[in-house]
Hints:
alpha+beta, Endonuclease, Chain A, 3 helices, 36% helix, globular
Amino acid sequence: MILSKEQNWTFVKAPLGRGLKYRALCDADAMEDADLRSWIREFREWGLEIRVAPELPLKMQAFDDEAVLISMQDPAAGQPSFTAVAIHNRGLVAMVNLAFERLWDGARRFDEKTRRKERK
């Protein structure tokens, strides 16, 4: 994970508290982490829509068709190290959002038993 627990909780709770629609895709490997599954159950109670995909190519956040933030792990850096790229180009944002929708449509809803071994 890139953020601390407190940062993650604020990052999720703040927009939901403002009534924004918020969806998250998690990869199946992440479901092996008991702490993360616990967080996700809590986030779902707050209103976060969650689905699980067999795998995800990268981490991203999309904001209202205006901007996308992509976080990419740097494999040469040793310890987990990420580079974030903010995209404000409407065409590229639209393409990244299409990729998200495609992954979303192919993912399954998160439930209490969602684990990696249940991959399709």
